[in-house]
Amino acid sequence: MNKLIALLVLVVFVPVHGQVPVKTSNPSDSWQLVKSLSDEFDGAKLDWGKWYKEDKLPNTTGWKWNNNANAKIENGVAALTMQHNADNESDDGTYFKSGILKSKATFTTGYVEARIKGAAIAVSGPKNGYGVCPSFWLYSDFDRDVADGEVIYCEIDVVELQQFDWHKGHQDDIMDSDHNLHLVKKENGKGVWYRPKKYPEAQLNKFRLSDDPSKNYHIYGCEVNEKEIIWYVDGEKIGSKPNTYWYRPMHVTASLGLRRPFVKFSNNANRAVNPLVDEEAKKQLKGMPTTMYVDYIRVWKKK
After folding, report:
1. What residues are labeled active site?
2. One Pfam family of this protein, by short name (predicted)?
């Protein structure tokens, strides 16, 4: 009888994984998991009823998406792979294809969290990981019919890894992560981009990770409420911004994109670079293909 009682107590008090975020702004808040936006990746295959597989994926000018070849489950985690096109074949001026998970359901306020390992590009020297950007982000559809002063598009980057950014005279390395906001507002009838470097106080966050994120998992979280956007890494609050414009319904997204030297940023887009023509890209090409890993994605709303 004592053994039975002990077993019942164990069953009652063992916590269900993912029942609460790792860290939030108010410990007394109660949270409810949103199953349509959450995934433990425990199945044999990705749940394409939950994620877009082929259509309605974000427009990219520097690479293409191909989830058939580049998104799958490996040992209980989602694996998103960036691959160089065979024989450097050009596909509408691009040379790489990658994987992406974009939710069919949308998010406005609540809490998002993912446990992620970045993507190694194993080359000699200090540029491991240089050329790709593992990302966990929220973004809305474009609505160009909104009134003047309203939001056409909004984006919250829970985390962008391995961007090797240059900012204010500092060259980031692989341990520097970005947690930024992007926005398109309608002004005088036209869409105007608001980028974080131009508006750092309102939109830019940088953080120094404890180790190489391409070799180790970290938990990246973001709380979005009507007043504030708050970022967390491994349960540590690392930044916050007022939530002035980020109110459009957004898709929860994990993806592996390209960065320098495989693309060059101009006119608000990453433009493809032929990796066999650019010498720096040719060196980094030795580390392709590469894969980022997503252990889980969990999204909560307040009860």
Report:
1. 155, 157, 160
2. Glyco_hydro_16
Place of tokens 């877009």: 52
HSE of 284, CA atoms in CB hemisphere, 13 A: 28
pTM of the model: 0.93
DSSP for residue 103: E
Domains of the chain with CATH codes? 2-302 (2.60.120.200)
The two structure tokens encoding residue 76:
């209980």
Residue with tokens 């491994």: 234
CA Rg, the chain, in Å? 20
The tens digit of pLDDT for each residue in 94-108 reads 999 999 999 999 999
Measured between alpha carbons, how far is 156 from 34 in angstroms, rounded to an integer?
19
* Residue whose entry in the numeric block shows the structure tokens 């984006």: 155
CA nearest to 179, candidates 194, 198, 163, 168: 163
Length reported for the chain = 303
Scanning the structure block, which residue is given the tokens 């990796």?
275
Q: How many alpha carbons lie under 13 Å from residue 190 in its C-beta half-sphere?
A: 4
